[in-house]
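Recap for those who missed Tuesday's class. We walked through two folding examples back to back. For each one, the amino acid string is listed first and its predicted structure tokens come directly after. Nothing is annotated here on purpose, so try labeling regions yourself before you check the end of the notes.
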Amino acid sequence: MKTLPLGRAFTLIEPGPLVLVTTNDGRKDNVMTISWTMVTGFSASFAITTGPWNHSYAALQETRECVIAVPTVDMIDIAIGVGTCSGRDTDKFDKFGLTPVKARHVRAPLISQCLANIECRVVDIIDRHSIVMLEGIAAYFDSSRKEKRTIHAVGDGTFIVDGRRLDRKDMMRDKLPGGL
């Protein structure tokens, strides 16, 4: 085996899917791309990493709410584009053709083009680690979307696309490792 620089070790443990996080600061909607996400238990508890370098961070701190929207692989150019400009001077919904949909419980909008949307409340912000802890309060899934593969950021400018999802029956039938 070759030695990997320790500063690149994070690329070996890929987090959850790349997501779009929407906020509303009381005046306007914004959306940012987050490439580090995590489920924190078997309930609707999540963590994302972001901080003051992102325009939406102030809205997360002030309003204590957001929407996690899950794009699919056909939206990769949009997700990358959203992540490479700032809501300080860009209406990202307009620029990238995203359709905001009024949420039921938070001011931040859902994104109609996304496979799934989760309305969330901020339950904690751990500044030392730039982690925002979220509690889901409503979730939506668009089963009519043909494309359902999600995007995962490795962290070095490359991406992984989900393949076929396997349930226990698939694992048993295919005798894949981990089958019960």
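Example two. Treat it independently of the first, because the proteins are unrelated.
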Amino acid sequence: MIRAFLALPLPDTLIHRLTVLQHGLRLTDPVPRENLHLTLVFLGEQREPDLEDLHITLDNRRLEAPQLQLTGLDVFGGKMPRNLHATFALTPGLKALQAKVSQLARHSNITIKARKFVPHVTLARFAEGEASAPELAARIQQQGAVHSDPYLIPEMVMFRSILRASGPVYDPLASYPLLP
């Protein structure tokens, strides 16, 4: 079984911007720069033949490249945040790409959990009780407005996710060019 996901890699200029934000927020355990990406579909633990079938399907498709536009910072977890992330506009192109790759995964015998797609890039994860909302909100407020011009993303990547005690390691399995 292979734990996998489909994601959009980020351009170096955006990765630099996000790492500057991580530093400015004084995060104790920021997500490493090599792990910064925007997940389109988490595939979970899958049999290799099913991932191979999805790979062949994606390799034979020419999907449209979406634009990513940074819109701010937010948390998941309410008053006891478990995740700090950069938010991105849910553009029609990004929404269409996410829906299409979810559909193609389902046609490859992969069960996708139904959940609302919230385009984001995780900047930090928190252990239970590690970050309080008021403290984090104050640090986010100090950063001021966080946004960017749109970036056209030219490829999508299938990653293997290897869980380790030190944190996950993401290994690219295949990349798929996207049409401009």
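Answers for example two:
The CA atoms of residues 62 and 178 lie 6 Å apart.
The chain has four helices and nine strands.
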